[in-house]
Amino acid sequence: MVTFTNAKLFDGQTLRPGQWSVTLDGDRIAAVSDTPAVGDDVIDLNGMTLMPGLITSHFHPDFFKFDMATAMRGDQLGKELPPGVGMAMGVRQCGILLESGFTAYAGAGCAHDIDASLKIAIREGIIPGPRIMACGHHVGTTGDANAALKWWQTFTAGGIDTFADGPDGMRKLVREEIRRGVEIIKIFASPGHLIPGHRGPDNMARDEIAAVVDAAHQRGAKVRAHVCTKAKILECIQLGVDIIDHGDEFDEECIEAAVKMGAYWVPSLTFTKVLIDMGADATGEYADSWAKLRPLMLKAHKAGVRILIGDDYSGLLRDILPDDPLDHQVGCYGREFPFYGEHVEGVTAAEVLSWGTKNPGELWGAHGDKLGVIEPGALADLIVVDGDPVADLSLLAKPETALKAVIRDGAIVIDRLPPQARQKAAA
C-alpha cells in the first residue's frame, strides 16, 4: 500500500477544502482521509493537487500521418501507410497520452484493430499505456459520405471505413467488430463536421441504426455516432445511441432527449474553432455551429447532459498551422480544458474538469468499476499536478512543467516528484 498525503484533492467533481491523504491498495483506492499520514510508504505532496487521471472520450490512435493534401486527393483513411506503421503510431500516442496526464481513452475509430491490439499489448505488459475502451471501424453504408470519391477507385481491402446495408447486414457487422475486441461501435449516421454533404442525405436509415444499437447492447458494447443534423441527432438518441459525437445542430430539444435517455455528448469544438480561424468555413456552417453550441453547452451541462472531453486529434493541419492544437503532441490534449473554460461562458473550472474525469468515468462505470473519481473502491488512475487546476486550467496544457506523477492501476508510471517527498514523509 502507498499513501499520498498533504494533497489538495480534486475528487472528479469538486476541489475539497483543506489537505487530504489518499491510500492505494493494489489497483484500487482504499481510503480517503483528512488526517495527515507518515511512514515509509507515504509520499508527501506538500500542497500539490491529487486528482483523477484525465480521460479523453474521442480518440483516434492512428490518425497521425493523414495530412490535408492526402485528404483532398480522396485517399482512404487508414490506407496511407501499412498496418504495422499504424500500430506504431498507436504505441506512440499511448506514450503521449500518459505524458499529458491522460490515463484512459474511449476510442472513436481506427483501422486494422489497433485499439483492441493496443489494449492487449498494454494488458500483457508489452508497452505502457492508458486504459482503453476499444473502438473499431467507422461503420457506414454503401455509397455514403465516407465511401470512395470515385467509385472505380474503391478499395478491395478496407482502411478505417467499413460498409453494410440493411438491419441484417448491420447486425452481422457489429457482431464481427465485437468478436475482434471492439467495445464501442462507431457509426456515421450523417455527414457534416468536415465530412462532405452536410446538407445532403443521411448516411444510415433508422432501421439500420436501431439494428446496430440492439446488436451492440445485446452483447455488452456501446454505440457512438458521428451525427450533425438535428433530426438525425434526435433519432440516434431516441434509438439508444450512447455517445453523440459533434452534434453540430444540437439544441434544447436534443438536450431534453439526451437527459431522458442518458446519452453523452462530445461537442469537439476545438476542431470547429480551428477551421473558422483558418478561414476554412466557406458555407458558414462552422461559424453557425460555434455561435449556437457555446451557450448551449452550459445549458446542457446544467440540465444533466454528460459532456465529454475529446476531439479529432490527427496532425491533419500540422503542415498548415505552426502550432496545431489538434496534433498528437504532449500538452495538446489538455488544451481542451482551458479552451472550454474560456469559451463556454458561465461554466466553472471544476465543471469543465468533470468532463474529463467524473463524466467519462460514468461511461466506463457501466462495466462495474468506478473511474474518474477519488473515492474508496475506485480504480487508482491518478495524476499529481504542481499547482491548482481549478484555479488555473491551463496547467493541464503544460504537463512538461506541471505534471509531477501519473499513477495507472495503482502503479506510478511517470515519477517527477521531488526526492524530499518521500524523505519528509518517512522522517
Can you put this structure into words, describing what you see?
This protein has 427 residues and is an alpha/beta fold. The protein is 33% helix and 22% strand. Strands 1, 2, 3, 4, 5, 16, 17 and 18 form an eight-stranded mixed sheet that branches. Strands 10-9-11-12-13-14-15 form a seven-stranded parallel sheet, sandwiched between helices. It is globular, with a radius of gyration of 21 Å.
| Poorly predicted ranges | none
Mean pLDDT over all positions: 93
Name the helicity range: 25-40%
Number of helices: 14
Secondary-structure content class: alpha/beta
Shape, principal axes of CA atoms: globular
Report how far apart the termini are: 18 Å
Radius of gyration, whole Å = 21 Å
